[in-house]
Write the structure tokens for this entry.
Amino acid sequence: MAFVNTNFTKVSESYLFVEVARRIKAYQEAHPEAKIIRMGIGDVTRPIVPAVIEALHKAVDEMGTADGFRGYGPEQGYAFLREAICNYDFKQRGIDIQPDEIFVSDGAKSDCGNIGDILGQQNVIAVTDPVYPVYVDTNVMGGRAGDFDGIRYSRICYMPCTQENGFVPTLPSQHVDVIYLCFPNNPTGTTLTKSQLKVWVDYALREKSIILFDAAYEAFITEDDVPHSIYEIEGARQCAIEFRSFSKTAGFTGLRCGFTVVPKELVAYTEEGKAVALNRLWNRRQSTKFNGTPYIVQRAAEAVYSPEGRAQIMANIAYYRENARLMKQTFESIGIPAFGGVNSPYVWIRTPLDSWQFFDRLLDECHVVGTPGVGFGPSGQGYFRLTAFATHEATREAMERIKKWKL
Ligand SMILES: *Cc1c(COP(=O)(O)O)cnc(C)c1O
């Protein structure tokens, strides 16, 4: 008899997007004439920029020549990409990160999930609430979450982020070992300043905890006091792992490339209190279970850092940012508080209704679709997420409808 890993049976059904799709389908069938605008999508829509496409073509052609062919590459990523990352994302911001602390991958979702492989099962996990569901579900699979009561898992520490605390999580009153922080945040679109993030770095150093910092939306930051990397904070090399992705930065959601930073100083402990370096452990994990990101994709990622590449991707980000600005302004103009949108493609609105009631009314009366905040965690109740990834035309049309809306 083969036994199943019962941790996987404890993962709650991802009811959110299934239910959203079901309600849209039912509505469209009942109202075939309704022109529905979708602002719930968490995927980018602008095509990949020319500099990246050119690098891809060149790499594809190389693979068809005897000299240019590449087979298995280094599991950690090619030196050309690790050096480009080091230089542009860290050195130029005055941050000390070396190429051998960077691990190139097929995206941040895999890394956020896989990192649990090298962390003990006894760790107490803290997440912000609302939260990117991957952090919770992968810890359920890893046996760290305890039991689900229909709302929360018993062993996970939830840190509410609401309008009342300015979407800044407060330090937990219990000791926690591993803390997931995602800033700029999905779903709220809000950020932490350097001094607000320093509170967490200081906590982690004091408690010998580890921060798993997801910086997938770093490229959307516009404000000066918002850190692009946790390593801008003193002491973070001793307590933090950082996840980055080319998905939202450069439209790689389909191409797939990201990377994880594990500093050499970072350690976790055995039950006996012996310190173990996580850079070596992650290297061992990756070399054993992962055979590298495709060469052509790494060449494409490298092109994101060329002067042309940078200018082109920043133009796409500016395109989304303009949508976010218009969305935030529109909701504020009708008296609905709206957050995020400044350093993020997400606008998080505080609805006068329950999240799902707001979803139904927005769909029925404006033919606009977003994502109910409660789907991201109990503290998301009464909130609603809209994304800036639609076209300018669709976004303008949606906002015109909302301006005339009598909620
Ligand atoms: C989109 C997103 C990512 C990126 O995932 P990839 O696997 O790199 O596409 C990571 N974290 C958060 C919070 C996201 O929203």
Residues 107-109, 132, 182, 186, 214, 216, 245, 247-248, 253, 258 surround pyridoxal-5'-phosphate (CB under 6 Å). The first strand starts at residue 37 and ends at 38.
